[in-house]
Amino acid sequence: AHLWRGVITEYAERLPMLDGAPVVTLGEGGTPLIEAEKLSKRVGARVFVKYEGLNPTGSFKDRGMTTAMSMAAKNGAKAVICASTGNTSASAAAYATKAGMTCAVLVPDGKIAMGKLSQAIAHGAQLLQVDGNFDDCLTVARKLAENYPVELVNSVNPARIEGQKTASFEIVDALGDAPDIHVLPVGNAGNITGYWRGYREYAAPFTTADGRELPAVSTKTPKMWGFQAEGASPIVAGHPFDEPETIATAIRIGNPASWKQAEEARDDSGGLIDSVSDDDILDAHRYLSSEEGIFVEPASAASIAGLLKKHAAGQVPAGATIVCTVTGHGLKDPQWALRNADGDDIQPERVDVDAYSVARALGLDS
Ligand code: F0G
Fold first, then answer.
1. Residue 354 pLDDT exceeds 90
2. Which of 206, 190, 303 lies closest to 257, judged by CA?
3. Which of the residues 215, 247, 318, 349 has an alpha carbon 20 to 30 A from that of 4?
4. Total domain count for the chain?
């Protein structure tokens, strides 16, 4: 029997920064890599979905939060702060509770999915809705961390990226080598930075904190394909967006903190960063739920929407091994499932309480 112990313990020798830190964990990581047969057939490649919605708080943020909170504990911090479009705040609130710290979160006014908001409140975070967007919240959070005794746990904290790189390790460990292409949504651009670091580290010898050299695990690194939402696509446009807009509120970001690192991941891997429309995102969201059995929040579907866009343009290499990260669980922001492609509300059909009526409604008795 093997109990998954969370990413810090599972990948301890590859996380030298965490050496000697107390481990604050909720058992994050170890998420499924699901072979997506229908999607594979549709794009003519072998496609896997890394389902990060199955982390303890329902998003990939937990991988970086276990490391950030453990470093905060090592530094003797009593309080943490973050800016968030929702998932970071949910994760920070849960891990701060586990660590016995207080947590303050700054979120953009009125654009947070209900599931995420309720998580932060359930875990007792001090939640402030700021009259501004995510980028404004992050500016304020950074200033607070500079001037007050609170530790910033956004992805500008180096421990966050360090933890998030473990997703790449899990993928290579599962497939036996790196995929040809890795596709993921891009918001503040911490995750693409983390994945690229993980893939690079696994493709070369690695020196541990106690000076041992580990051999390379993979023979190659994948091309990194990142996708932003069209209305919040500063990296694609080459300039910040003052008023980013998208239904994918998780990635409604106009000036990503890790902009430069995202461009490096793109260029060094021979990859690309492109955008997808909100309609493409919602189509991909429906496709994943109805064809593959995987329920995600809209921002997560940007990776699948991106893959489908590239397929339509004839740019998906035949037979390639492709991993798409879906970053957050569908239950975070479930309202989108309750509308059809035309935007109409979907209502459950009402039936009388007898077997015949139910059988008729189900088309079993015709
Ligand atoms: N997908 C989801 C579900 C997210 O919550 C985020 C970011 C991203 C993708 C983009 O990842 O920022 O590393 O490029 N959410 C942050 C938050 C901004 O505050 O929860 P990224």
1. yes
2. 190
3. 215
4. 2
What's the mean pLDDT in 294-318?
Answer: 98
pTM, two decimal places: 0.97
Ligand 1 pocket check for 299: Cβ under 6 Å: yes
User: If you average pLDDT over every residue of the chain, what do you get?
Assistant: 97
Q: Does residue 86 have its Cβ closer than 6 Å to ligand 1? A: yes
| Residue-number span of the structural domain to which 107 is assigned | 61-156
Q: pLDDT confidence of 1, banded at 50, 70, 90? A: low
Q: Are residues 316 and 182 in the same domain?
A: yes
Answer yes or no: is 150 within a domain. yes
Tokens at 246, concatenated: 């998208």
The CB of 328 under 6 Å from ligand 1? The reply is yes
SS3 182: strand
Q: Whose CA is nearest to atom 15 of ligand 1?
A: 250
Interval 135-175: pLDDT, tens: 999 999 999 999 999 999 999 999 999 999 999 999 999 99
DSSP tag of 141: H
What was the pLDDT predicted at 92? 98
Residue with tokens 């609130």: 93
Provide the CB-side half-sphere exposure for 25 (13 A, CA): 18
d(CA 243, CA 84): 16
- pLDDT tops 90 at residue 309: yes
8 A C-beta contact, residue 292 and residue 38: yes
Radius of gyration of the chain (CA): 21
- DSSP letter at 350 equals P
Ligand 1 centre distance from Cα of residue 68 (Å)? 16
Q: Is residue 362 part of a domain?
A: no
235 alpha carbon, distance to own chain's centre: 18
- Domain match, 180 and 102 both: no
Among protein residues, the one whose CA lies closest to atom 3 of ligand 1: 328
